[in-house]
């Protein structure tokens, strides 16, 4: 591993952190004048807060990476020099260079599309389509450089399928779906101060720890080194943003940051060859998606905003609710809500006129349903603590537990 390149991206990231901390408060009035602002509905005075600040973080990240582009190749051992050629490279790692450029192109596309969503308020079908398009450069580079679509089988399945199975085009469908999921998963689990950035910082920190652990073991050195190049500046800029986005938020991040963060994780997961491990770090987001499925796919009525209700008298958050009549739901919708009600995963209040009132199906509302009304700061801390616990569980699954299911042949 080129420790010099890692040290340089670390230095650049420190500069990016300082630049971000300096820029955020200075651009406040500019965003408000451009009407890029909103009201913080979970505060007594409902202050006006500038939003879409993810575009600033994304730009600082891109500038940092643009400055870093020549560094890995200047210290790459494969780019050997020869005295006869006047010190010019004899071999240049074009495949690695293309990977880096394609990764930045995909992230840049998602920053642009995220900002367009903040300004134009795109429909959900567009939010699913646009990440798919932005992932195409990644998939093309993966096809040209690797085109490995073989999946290792766990021990219990090797008697039927063998050690590995080539799933062909379905592997590319999986990677495209991974990018769509990552970009939207953070956006779905959002709505209270500091949660979007907080969960992203923990996921980024988890990826960094995983990369360093794998490098210490000598596993796929180039892939995890590639991941570090992206995650270090992402972690630094996100940490700077969290300083202003945590409770009480001075700025809102908007969909721009959620898309930027999701695509950054998808990039390192796909090109770093640890997409399954990445999904383990997304356990809270996966649980939130599964819990939200009845409303996301409109099996149950879904209001446009499912944020918790704020009680100004107590300064606490309460569950937000949706209502419906069971006989008006489809058969699948009725089955879903009955299963959730049976296992006491949702609130349930039957009205005299036959309507049923339940909490909105989000992880935030689930926490409030289980623990009761809490302060916004406490709600964020509880969800971030859960994210951290899931990281520890993910690392346990990835290392001690995985050895029981996967045995490397010697």
Task: Give the topology, please.
Layout lengths: L2 H24 L1 H6 L3 E3 L8 E3 L3 H15 L2 H4 L19 H27 L3 H22 L4 E3 L5 H4 L2 E3 L2 H20 L6 H23 L3 H25 L8 H18 L3 H7 L1 H14 L12 E3 L4 E3 L2 E5 L5 H12 L6 E2 L4 E5 L3 H9 L4 H30 L5
Catalytic activity: a di-trans,poly-cis-dolichyl phosphate + UDP-N-acetyl-alpha-D-glucosamine = an N-acetyl-alpha-D-glucosaminyl-diphospho-di-trans,poly-cis-dolichol + UMP
Cofactor: Mg(2+)
InterPro entries: Glycosyl_transferase_4, GPT
Fold and architecture overview:
This protein has a domain at 3-43 and 51-79 and 93-294. It is built from 16 helices and nine strands. The protein is globular and about 75 Å long. The strands form four sheets. A three-stranded antiparallel β-sheet has the order 7-9-8. It has 410 residues and is mostly helical. The two termini are 25 Å apart.
> What is the beta-strand fraction?
5-15%
Order of helices and strands: HHEEHHHHEHEHHHHHHEEEHEEHH
Note the main sheet: 3 strands, antiparallel
Radius of gyration: 23 Å
Shape: globular
Low-confidence stretches: 80-85
- What percent of the residues sit in helical stretches (DSSP H or I)? 55-70%
Distance between the termini: 25 Å
In total, the number of strands is 9
With strands numbered from the N-terminus, the spatial order across the biggest sheet is: 7-9-8
Mean pLDDT: 90
Helix/strand-derived category reads: mainly alpha
- What is the helix tally? 16
Enzyme class: transferase
Membrane topology: Multi-pass membrane protein
Main location: endoplasmic reticulum
Cofactor: Mg(2+)
